[in-house]
Amino acid sequence: MTDGQGRSIDYLRISITDRCNLRCVYCMPAEGVEWVPHASILSYEEIVRLTRLFASLGVRRIRLTGGEPLVRRGLDDLIRELKAIPGIETVMVTTNGTLLREQLPGLMSAGLDGVNISLDTLDPVQFAAIARRSGLSSALAGLNAALDTPGLTVKLNCVPTLENASQWVPLAELARNRPLAVRFIELMPIGLGGGMPGISEADLRAWLEEALGPLAPCEGDKGGGPCRYFRPAGFRGKIGFISAMTHQFCSTCNRVRLTATGFLKTCLQYDAGVELRPLLSSGADDAELLRVMEGAILNKPLRHHFGASSQSRDERRTMNQIGG
């Protein structure tokens, strides 16, 4: 499947819940949000059906997100069914890691290929301030369990801000002796992130190089997304940058998103897309669903306009409602 710009769309991010056991400052307000009723969330059966259709259009990679996907029961069963779909090559999960250690054996048995763990600090006090909950020890236990699991690709995602500047180097150092990719993701003006100052890749890289030495590009190691990888001398792992604000990668965007309520979202910046759940509820057949899905993907926006003035179709939901 290609969109109207000729970009090949082979990557689908599926949010399976808007619920989370943390309340991170750039994701949810301190008082929390009103959860979507469970009856309004896509069932696993609906997710599997839609994924089969996406696979028939050329989607090969699935990432399950939230909210926090590990708070929804039966995640291992969903992974097992998704892995059985012809054409689906990898199924990965993005998690805050706090529930990972206990669930990892079941997820691996189901066929999980990779895990991204979101972690912005190694300081327990700062963790509690950012996440508005305790849980650093559980997150680190999840990270260590993942790194000890043969055959599992492990990445750590950090959103660098002024508040966690003291942690950029310690987080990067986690990749020194382990096969870990530590990725720094520029803060995007989506949801609550729009009211927070971010750090540019250039400033962050200068900070890291002062402490770690030059960052040598990892040639040919781009992965399936926009991250650009580098390796300081002596590192077993690598450091990556995902910089939507200062290194726009819209021309090579290969992904769409499916929210927990069944909205096919074709760009993180906009509310562009189409509601699929009403079609499922009304008994639409596969041909009708495919027609609507193809139409939405064909009209995927050319690019975001982060940093420019707002527009009428800009996304207004919080990140837990979108799916990261």
UniProtKB/TrEMBL annotation:
Which residue range or ranges hold the Radical SAM core domain?
A: 4-226
Q: What reaction gets catalysed by this protein?
A: GTP + AH2 + S-adenosyl-L-methionine = (8S)-3',8-cyclo-7,8-dihydroguanosine 5'-triphosphate + 5'-deoxyadenosine + L-methionine + A + H(+)
One GO BP annotation is: Mo-molybdopterin cofactor biosynthetic process
The UniProt keywords, alphabetically, are: 4Fe-4S, GTP-binding, Iron, Iron-sulfur, Lyase, Metal-binding, Molybdenum cofactor biosynthesis, Nucleotide-binding, S-adenosyl-L-methionine
Tell me which cofactor or cofactors this protein depends on.
Answer: [4Fe-4S] cluster
Q: What is its EC number?
A: 4.1.99.22
InterPro entries to which the protein is assigned, alphabetical = Aldolase_TIM, Elp3/MiaA/NifB-like_rSAM, MoaA, MoaA-like, MoaA_NifB_PqqE_Fe-S-bd_CS, MoaA_twitch, MoCo_biosynth_MoaA/MoaC, rSAM
Q: What is this protein called?
A: GTP 3',8-cyclase
- Which organism does this record belong to? Lawsonibacter faecis
